[in-house]
Amino acid sequence: MPTAQPPAGPASPEVIEIERALNRINYLSTRARHHDRLMAMAGVPLDRAAVALLRQIADSEPLRPGELAHRLGVEASHVTRQVQQLQRDGYVTRAPDPDDRRAQRIEITPRGQEAIGRIRDVGVRGMQVALSAWSSGELRQLATLFHRMVDDFLAHAADDAQEPLAAARPES
Fold this sequence. Notes:
Elements: H1 13-30, H2 32-42, H3 48-58, H4 65-72, H5 76-88, E1 92-97, E2 100-108, H6 110-130, H7 136-168
Antiparallel strand pairs: 1-2
Helix pairs in contact: 2-6, 3-5, 4-5
Organism: Streptomyces caeni
Protein name: MarR family winged helix-turn-helix transcriptional regulator
Domain HTH marR-type: 15-151
């Protein structure tokens, strides 16, 4: 299956502005000071990498560490270290994989669910304050467009992941 190639020529001004806005959002949301304040308000002593992993585990069915690494776009060894720490702290547990008893899946514990709930609550309350002047229609439209954009990004990323496989296949 051929993948969509970027259009030749310069990007549209709208896409350039979207990329700039996303970079600003990313910068604001990944600052250490912001993370530390969020964790203090939530009462959860986790670093950014642990929170990202715990969110992924909370939002999915139990997964193998390799699948977690793939979904987060990190090395498996990074996930292994983070899972070990989260397990020691009681946020996750390992369970046998029903499809392969030699493998394990990572599951969130009630303590992990509570921690993610508190982190999300603090984040949502902060967003609510920041967006308080927006109408419910504007918020609904933004949410719809964000979900659509993320879905398109994920579809594009899946196409990119398939490209090396397609190139390696012999022509029939």
